Every structure is written in structure tokens, then in C-alpha cells.
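Quick one: C-alpha cells for this chain, please?
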Amino acid sequence: MRASNTQKLGEVIEDYLKALRLKNRVKEFELIRHWEELLGPVISGKISRIYIRDRILFVQVQSAVLRNELFMQQEQLLRTLNEKSGHKIIDRIVFR
């Protein structure tokens, strides 16, 4: 006989992440993955470090030309990343 209080595994994991206050952290990692998918392997290869702190995405770019190009597309990138993640995870992007 099956128990009446069964839950889907995805729901259990989500509840667990909420209880540990890790849900936002997982969303941040997903957003970074979307960044690499959005820009592709060539451009992602020119980025030495990417991380999120206080709702700001920091991107260290090895090329000044690429940094300038990304800066010009900053608003579009911000909007696309937040849309792909399903939540507003970041408020701005800083290129270094």
C-alpha cells in the first residue's frame, strides 16, 4: 500500500534547499551556467572569472576590446540572464 503523504522528488529537494537557505545560491549557479551558454565557448574562454556577490554579477574579461563590447550589451545581457533564470537574480553586471 502506498503512503498518502508522498511528494515528488523535485518538491522535496526544493523544500530542503529553502530550509537551508540555499535556493538563491543554486539560482546564482544556474545563472552563471546560462551566461556561458548565452555567450558560447569562444567568448567564455576569454573570461577568467565570473561570480555573483550582493546581486551583482562580476565578470573578469581578459580582453579590453571584448570588455567594451560586453559593456555596450550590458542591459540586454542582464535582461536575458534574469529571464532565463526565471527570477530577478542580479541587478547589474560589472566588467573588469
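The chain has one domain: 9-95.
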